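Reviewers of the previous submission asked for a worked example of the structure-prediction workflow described in the proposal, so we include one complete record here. The input consisted solely of the amino acid sequence. No template or homolog information was supplied to the procedure at any stage.
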Amino acid sequence: MKQIDQALQKIELGKKAFDEAEQILAEILQGDSVPSVIEQEPVSDPLETRMEEAGLEFEDKTPPRTDLVCPLCSSKVYDNRPNKRSGQYKETSPDFTCSNIQDCSGIVQGDVRKLRKSWWLNSKDLPQDWINTTVPHNPEADYVDTTNKNKEEEEYSPF
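From that input alone, the workflow returned the following structure tokens.
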């Protein structure tokens, strides 16, 4: 009987220690805000905005891309960036839009009509090779080098 009483006393001491530790942890955590598991993606300011804030003038001389292909349906993709800059399209318009309104798998049903697959410069699924371009040295040129080849590679031929 004595052994049972000693075991019960030890259990009671263990419960008290556990309760005290739980209370201490609750006090510590009460002051800290626990971050959410689902955090919003940080919004990055466009380069134009940051340059304006720094007092620098920004002028994008990159010609529009005409060789873009939709990764979902292989149709032509329109580069809307020049139309957005000129004010012809709203600033909230997508930067790139698929031309296929019939059977592209990226079509979504809007409130009034079907909407074509679209991408903004900060879209997670934007193909990076669409924006990784080399601006020609002549700003009057109407082309963009998208091959990412060095001229040295072209000149070298093992045959």
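The radius of gyration is 30 Å. We consider this example representative of the routine output the project will generate in years two and three.
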